[in-house]
Fold this protein.
Amino acid sequence: MPVQPEHEPAEGTLAGWAGRHPGASRTLEDLGRGWALFTRQGWNRQRVVATVAAVLINSLALIVTINVVPGLSASAEWDVVLAVVLAAILTAGLRPALQALALAFGWVGVLVVGLFARAAILYLAFVVTPDIHVDGFWPAFAASWIAAIITIAISWLVSAGDETEFLSQLLMFSHHGRIPHQDEPGVVMLQIDGLAAPLLQWAVVSGNLPTLSRWIRAGSHRLTPWHAQVPPTTPASQAGLLHGNNRGVPAFRWFEKDAGRLVVSSKPKDAALIESRMSDGRGLLADDGVSISNLFSGDAPVSHLTLSGFALGGRPARSFAAFFISPYGFTRSFILTIGEAVKEVYQARRQRLRGIEPRIRRSGVFAAQRAISNVLLRDLNTVLVAQYIMRGAKSIFCDYTDYDEIAHHAGPTRAESLRALEGVDRVIGTLAALAAHAPRPYEFVILSDHGQSQGATFRQRYGTPLEEVVRDLMAGAGSPTTDSIAATGTEEARTPVSRFLAEVRQQHGMVGMLSRSKLAAVVEEEPGAARPEAAQGGAARPEAPELVVAASGNLALVYFPRHPGRLTAEEIETAYPGLLAELASHPGIGFVCTRTSSDGPVVLGRDGVHRLGSGQITGADPLAAFGPQAAADLLSHDSCDHVGDLVINSRLDSGTDEVAAFEELVGCHGGLGGWQGRAVLVHPATWPVDGELIGAECVHRQLVRWLERVGHRSDLAPPTARVTSSV
């Protein structure tokens, strides 16, 4: 008789069967892990009270639902209580099978199973329960969602919005029992997109952000402002923060004359191109790090919802699937997503009726984007971060875009924007509480990539967009400009959704094929802006557009693609006489930056010139109102690859510090003026800051030193340049 190896389970046993069926083996592990966590928590008084309260709330919601949904009836209240208990038992028993089914079809499977799982379980509970009558599946489907809405509303009123239940669910679905404890700390870095340091300081003092306020007041963490250099945008800052190199990112969008290509960093192919240029293999997350919901990977071995696509996970995480197909997870997120959309419609209407200025039109499309970003994707990000905390990942970097999304459309300091900020603060508190159960201690670093500035848009103030102003001035100079590209859209608001769609497209099998074919246009195309074909031999072609205006907030890069290379001020004056003077004197333009053949980069204002190389100022300094870092920022920006022939910055209102965005956004960032360059870093108080933090590359070096301080990065390979993509 053959001898069974010690490491291989015996034939005919449950363990042996599971060993030959990996999916079943994982299911058994899930059941065992859940039971172990359940028994370790114990039946203390608080848990008994919470369980009884949950049964009573669900029973009350179901009693109300049965009385309003046709095709449902119950003889007595106790039958409803029994149905609630049976549904809970069925949920626990069927969860592994539902999870396996969802994962078989990837992200789409998770959403579909999440949509119908609660209804199917409730239908089975109705069928099994004596004296409850149900006329088919669809009454049960309606009942499942109505009861869920009532349950969530009651629970919210009882708990006053407390996140305890959310935390317990994260613990249940993110727990990994086999991971040994490690003494070396991990680091969780959470980016609050668009948060200005002065706004955070005010929110901490006011107590509106309980978690961050408690940390800073108690002295465990310190708030350190840092300066986001021009351009203060997410792609430039994240390239600097995650890869320590943002020289090739002159704006959120720009034109590359040599390739005849418009680059928009919110598009997956362009994000991949940017990362291929920036990465040397030793990014911030290269040492067992995880990138979640970022533009770039930071060379992390594992990435989720990372737009550049490097090291993407491809399939949804198993703990995410388990959470979102649970009655609590998906149902809660879906209902709150709908509620967020309704809230956006109400708040936009309230702005209009109250006559709040400045404001912009907030469309129904943005309501849907806000709902997905601020609820569904926020929960998705939180579940993924929780999973890797419980797996003991050494470092995690996740970008929460909630505040930035709303601030763009409502204004950086408006009530709805601050509510979104409070929501992110609750998430931070939840993850910090979860980290107490992790297999290693964790330190938390909270940072922003830039701030935001407010103001009525350039079009609102002057009745015409910037590209038309430039085009008209060129025509007045004797050059008819019938062929131009205006890249001044609001694609940044779609970036979180684009990240999710980009990851959906990474799926394998039939669902992945369908997703790739159907979502390609949604993810890649930019409305209103043509993408010209590549030029041959690196030279501009006669058929290239004569003008490209690429706006990023209140900064615009202006290109004349029919002229190869970067034009000097003298060459621009020869081709378009009077254009520079007219632009510099426009009431909506603060200054124009160009390059001269004799003095290098110069800044032209209405009443003066600032030569950046020598610092010489003639007349009134056009940069005087833009802060002490303005000249250094523009000098550094001038050295970026693919910077425009002209760099135009909007006016700055002296009384309000408001700017005039060249995009249709009331809150903006990308240039100079206001709070947009005043980013923030909240870090453990025992971690020293080595001097003033000027620029995202400097913050990257500081973060790397902190990681090395706690024992990370000692085994990293030497830098290796990535092959530049030809995307």
Q: What stands out?
A: Residues 560 and 691 are 41 Å apart (CA to CA). The longest helix spans residues 77-104. The chain has 24 helices and 21 strands.
